[in-house]
Amino acid sequence: MAASKTLSEATEVIQNNLDYTLFSWSKQKGIAPIAVKYAEGVYLHDYDDKRYIDFSSGLMNVNVGHGDQRITEAVVKQMQEVSYVTPSCVTKVRGELGKKLAEICPGDLNRSFFTLCGATSIENAIKLARLYTGRHKIVTRYQSYHGASIGAMAASGDPRKLPVDAQQAPNFVHIDIPILYRWEYGEEKLLKETVAQLERLIAYEGPGNIAAILLEGESGSSGCLKYPVGYLKAVRAICDKHGILLIMDEVMSGFGRTGKWFGFQNHDIVPDMIAMAKGLTCGYLPFGCLQVSDKIAAKYDDAMLPLGLTYSAHPVSCAAALATLKIYEEDNLIANTVAMGKYMEQQVEAMKAIHPSIGEFRNTGLLGCIELVKNRSTKEPMAPFNAKPDEMDVMNKVAAKIKELGMYTFVRWNYIFTAPPLCVTKEQIDEGLGIISEAIKIADENTI
After folding, report:
1. 369-396 pLDDT tens trace
2. Helix/strand number for the chain, H first, E second
3. Can you tell me whether residue 333 is helix, strand or coil?
4. pLDDT (tens digit, 9 = 90+) per residue, 41-82?
5. Do residues 399 and 432 share a domain?
6. How far is Cα 288 from Cα 117, in angstroms, rounded to an integer?
7. 385 and 262 share a domain?
8. Which of 102, 222, 322, 382 is positioned for an S-S bond with 143, CB 3.0–4.6 A?
9. What DSSP designation does 158 have?
């Protein structure tokens, strides 16, 4: 009877969600979501007591792992004191969080404007860049993603924006950064070409028109695509030359995910603004932050800052963020990320010997992506960029097998993402890669 009752409960939970809610980036019929009853550490558990290892940390945001009651306790304590005040009032936790972020961030990035999520961090970064410089154009990258609001989506170079392309915001200019894996002319020439392309674009668009260059600290959902070595340093120099601001989107790559507090720190630069979210509270509550340099903030010492959100600096979310930052430090999660990232790379490298469909593994810390190909010599992808449904047959089977074997992770086009919570162990990495290895056998059968 207990099993029957559980099954009935699971069915009801799923059906209520299918009947009364809408799903992001998905058709609404014929889907089979996991009904998560509870989550702990690196695992999700459904109503049928099946366990799934979470190999993408939710949406690359649950960095400290699921179910950490230290965050719960901080949230409850804050709600018992004050749950909400307007952003014109202050709370103790707001100031403490701002001070902690100033300690973490390099250079003079000492001022926090608290937002609700990654998209609102990006939107406000764009606004502030235009207000501060008096210029209007924003340069961003094709094959990038900055959020689903109109401005953030227009800034993105991701095909998810194409259905609403007619509604996109104006004055975004995109650059293409070729990927070394498919670049035929040598790594040194790749850096030279990408920098020259950016310089040409700035000349064409007019440097006096460009407010900011907006780039991800490390590429995420586009496929963990690597910058040419030295590229971000060159971008920083170009920005300084022309009075252009540099905004780093650290929504996904921030807070230890790449083995540093922020992804751009792997490139030895300091930007003018940092857009944050995801790992700031690890999804325990929605929250974001736009971290701004003292230089930019000083412009508004005696002038109105024309930015505002009803829930900016929400005290409960601030409490969740402050508790989360303490966990990174108390549990040495960034050091663990570096160690487990190296282990992940070693293990996937070993998998290449038995799986001809693995073309490349791109990884920084614990932000990784296995790219599957039909042929290693031609590097033809197992599914093309922005694949149509009938081009996803093999990869859909791979994804279904991964789920069947007890894993939740992000599978997109010919990519399988490996981004577990930063508390992951070697044994759990072995468990996860074992599942992926079994599923990849399906792709191996379709190599040529």
Report:
1. 999 999 999 999 999 999 999 999 999 9
2. 13, 16
3. helix
4. 999 999 999 999 999 999 999 999 999 999 999 999 999 999
5. yes
6. 4
7. no
8. 222
9. S
